[in-house]
């Protein structure tokens, strides 16, 4: 069952799958997109938590919101509100328990394929 | 550039991406499906090459053909004809060079999540 989250200040709920409901296929689908891979990569680059607005993605706000939602609903990231800012962080621990080595292999592959020539 | 293949006996071409044209996002997309994960897993289970018909997948022939094509066009499998049989094998070497550890992490995750209770 997904666990809806309620932040005291906002009352806005953001649904997240429980660890045991995270599906490999959904995680792979969530990662199979250049914008979402970039988000995941930035979340590992020294940031434990980032506001959506801080990513400076080359897409519209609604497209960006869609990508974050795909990542959240697949169980790749966890989001919560701080005031009006939606903060995101990777669910590295959950993913590592479920799929050992997967996230690091994907991130390593992403960095290799986006390495400056 | 994809390299079309022509088998002496059949003349039927099957397009494959060259190693350097294999994209991480396409590979992840190809793997983000339970039928395609099953195909990939079976290709590693002691079989180096299998005929499509040997997989006994719970889908129609045209759906099955679609899944094999997605895997082939993403660079996950290589296919060729032997008579009328379309044979498939994993491009493990290419994938390991491009994305070290990715395929084994995905397969390990797949086997864990499909382990009998």
From TrEMBL, chains A, B:
- PROSITE patterns in the record, alphabetically? HTH_ARSR_2
Q: Tell me which species this is from.
A: Nocardiopsis gilva YIM 90087
Q: Which InterPro entries match?
A: ArsR-like_HTH, HTH_ArsR_DNA-bd_dom, HTH_MetalResp_TranReg, WH-like_DNA-bd_sf, WH_DNA-bd_sf
The record's listing under NCBIfam families reads: HTH_metalloreg
* GO molecular function term, any single one: DNA binding
Query: Is Disulfide bond one of the keywords?
Result: no
Residue span(s) of domain HTH arsR-type: 16-110
The family database entries (SUPFAM superfamilies) matched by this protein are listed as: Winged helix' DNA-binding domain (SSF46785)
* Keyword Transcription belongs to the record: yes
- Could you identify this protein by its name? Transcriptional regulator
Task: Keywords in alphabetical order, please.
Answer: DNA-binding, Transcription, Transcription regulation
